[in-house]
């Protein structure tokens, strides 16, 4: 194994420590935090891509080719159905106060990191969600899963890569580590089922956008109200 790949593995394993340090010095501006997290993910991903293109990576195929087969057609169809459901759910949240309050209560533990203003939701949706979907799937499914699979087999690869994926989210609490690990296992299944990394990337992006939009429309703070609160005598 090339020394650059060993460095990459070390970075992947130590990344939760970086998150822990970042939590202690994080900005109160959520948009800045979204940019910081996205930048770190892209740095790791570009490093992974560099090792891959100089042909020093143990994983020789990142499975980025999408074949037209029934598995991928089914996967894309289900994602489109999920997008339709998201649109309808947002409409219901806007119109149904009881549903809105239920959603608010579910997101309350994560309100410090979820978008609640128009600017925040734009950065969260267009930058952080897309970044996490692309970078984390390349790191955990296309690379780490295949690397572990070559040594332990598929079950071990699913369990271990998903656990590490969950630990990356330890800053959200151990309950979230469990939930994210389960989600990592599901994304591994989608990756195996589809035979390419593009479908899990699209699904991952959708899941993050789904969470951000649902939270925003439930607890959003109109910028005009914030301006009035800052200047009550205006």
In words, what does this structure look like?
By secondary structure, this protein is mainly alpha-helical. It has one domain (about 5-100, about 110-220). It has nine helices and no strands. The longest helix is centred in the middle third of the chain and has 35 residues, at about 120-150. The chain is globular. It starts with a helix and ends with a helix. The model is unreliable at about 225-234 (pLDDT under 50).
Please report which band the strand proportion falls in: under 5%, 5-15%, 15-25%, 25-35%, 35-45% or over 45%: under 5%
Largest sheet: none
Helix content: over 70%
Query: Which residues sit in consecutive blocks of at least 5 with pLDDT less than 50?
Result: 224-234
- Our count of helices gives 9
Structural class: mainly alpha
**Cα distance spanning the termini:** 65 Å
> Which of globular, elongated, flat, extended, rod-shaped describes the shape?
globular
Radius of gyration: 19 Å
Please provide the count of β strands: 0
